[in-house]
Amino acid sequence: MDLLDIQGLTTHFLTRSGVIKAVDNLSLRLRKGRVLGLVGESGCGKTVTALSILNLVPSPGKIISGKIYFEGQNLLDLSGEEMRAIRGAKISMIFQEPMTALNPVFTVGNQIAEVLTAHQVITKQRARDEAIELLRSVGIPSPEKRVDEYPHQLSGGMRQRVMIAMAIACKPALILADEPTTALDVTIQAHILELLGNIQADMGMAMILVTHDLGLIAERANEVAVMYAGRIVEQAETGELFANPQHPYTRGLMASIPKPGEEGRGRLRTIPGSVPRLHDLPKGCAFSPRCDMKTGKCESEPELVEVKPGHLVRCWEAK
Predict the structure, then answer these.
(1) pLDDT at 254 over 70
(2) How do beta strands 35-39 and 223-228 pair?
(3) Per DSSP, which regions of the chain are E strands?
(4) Distance from first CA to last CA of the chain, Å, rounded?
């Protein structure tokens, strides 16, 4: 049985300028212990998808329809109290910017301990001891000292490690990692990603890795879902997607990746145009204004179809 089964998820933001269709009829499945890469440009709906799973969509956003089955239970049927019991315990999220996710007036040890005491019957001293061990497990030096420090006293890399420690504190079945290394320099990024990959493999957790970095996806994910304008436009096992990309948007993303040995040989390829405004989507295929394969068919929206076993594409020209 799938650990996570999302069916027809639709999340909209009702604003004065119109209805922003952040996530539009999205369906995904994820098995235990697997890593799903959710990729696309900024504004495609990746983060809103992750927040929808936790039912944490900020106002004026609202989940309009769909089902989110986790361990066979529809999360959208749960009360607020029932959902709070799942957040942090069974599903955790690593946010993009730890400085805004961590509380500046509490020590990092208190914040990790709070996750433990919220979901376990545990003494304060035991929670503190476990917080120290969690800091040690994510590679923070002198954890006995760092446990009493505040977020502003730590480097960006250490704050991200604290976020990971909080996320794994209760050994959840699913981690949602939202651009977990965006604000870090390249060297620290590599350390954090290696740490996250090792923890995920050791604990057997499933993970949804939200990113715009296809290189990261190629290295870390078992399967990939490419999002554009709130919809999945292509999905496949990682090896299959990179060997045989079918959607023009996926091909464009791959063509824009710098290749070793090609430095200084001219400008990188780009996808012309930009992501459309989600309250004013073009008629038919949302990618058509930027697509060099556009035909008359593209004035109507293509369905997500299986072009070969396990490889789904939303394009009239897919073979």
Answers:
(1) yes
(2) parallel
(3) 4-15, 18-30, 35-39, 61-70, 73-74, 91-94, 174-178, 206-211, 223-228, 231-237, 305-308, 311-313
(4) 30
Bridge-based pairing state of the strands 18-30 and 35-39: unpaired
Q: Which amino acid is at 209?
A: L
Determine the pLDDT at residue 189.
Answer: 81
Check if the beta carbon of residue 76 is closer than 8 Å to that of residue 66: yes
Instruction: List the beta bridge partners of residue 235.
Output: 225, 312
Q: Residue written as tokens 């060997």?
A: 243
Residue 299 structure tokens? 């004035």
CB 124 within 8 A of CB 117: yes
C-alpha span between 200 and 170 (Å, rounded): 13
What is the CA 274 to chain-centroid distance, rounded? 21
Residue from 194, 195, 183, 186 nearest 99 by CA: 183
The CB density around residue 183, as the number of other CB atoms within 10 Å, is: 16
Reference 298, options 317, 279, 273, 275; nearest CA is 317
Q: What pTM did the predictor assign?
A: 0.92
